[in-house]
Amino acid sequence: MELAYIVAGLVVGFVVGLTGVGGGSLMTPILLGFGINPATAVGTDLLYACITKTGGVWVHQRHRNIDWRITGWLAAGSVPTALLTVWGLSNLGLDTATVNKLIRVMLGFALMLTAVAILFKPYILKLLLKNRTPKPADHLPRLPTLAVGVMLGFVVTLSSIGAGALGTLVIFALYPLLPTARLVGTEIAHAVPLTLVAGLGHASMGNMDYHLLGNLLIGSLPGIWLGSHLTRQVAEKWLRPMLAIMMVFTGAKLVM
């Protein structure tokens, strides 16, 4: 199985490098397909996402593509929510079967929402840009940003999905004048502390397979490099819809 995990990491890393689609929405369903229980799949994928996104933060910071004010307010909502969610999972007396069922259902809904975000992202962005209202350059809607952080903290902790496609859309809804590069950099910078805290929380509950994590990283790091260098050679406009359709079917199956 070690080779299978390395190949899975390679494939997911390649697709992420090629399309920018979040690794969690691909990796977690693959881990479930390998027979790994939902809680361990989510916990392992959260730390996997934290490690793979950390390099992205360094690159974006070098190019000054991170708005740390927005990142801070998002994290102020998401990190405490992640801790509270993990506390609830471990202290509310839920048995293992119930926890796994809850995670499967949340994972299913998160996959379907992510698929919608991937399919209709260009249209949603155009609509938001069309209806944007002029605001001062330093305008920062703190409470809405905090609320978005709370929502992402809950969804990501239970499913390991949502920090990417969903996070980008909701941040853009609040900050439609934010340049695309800065939007992506800010989303990645927020995802790192969120996935780190949520992942460590799951690890404290025993929902972590470090050997599996190592194999996934061995495959994914060269996969990301290869995919990012082939972006122009592959028809992304066909690949993204195919991935979204796959996520819808997978999500619906998990919910049912």
Automatic annotation (TrEMBL):
It is found in: Cell membrane; Membrane. This is Probable membrane transporter protein. The keyword Transmembrane helix applies. Keywords: Cell membrane, Membrane, Transmembrane, Transmembrane helix. Belongs to the 4-toluene sulfonate uptake permease (TSUP) (TC 2.A.102) family. It is a multi-pass membrane protein. It comes from the Bacteria. GO terms for cellular component: plasma membrane. Its main location: membrane. The chain crosses the membrane at residues 6-27, 70-90, 102-125, 146-175, 212-232. It comes from Crenobacter cavernae. The keyword Cell membrane applies.
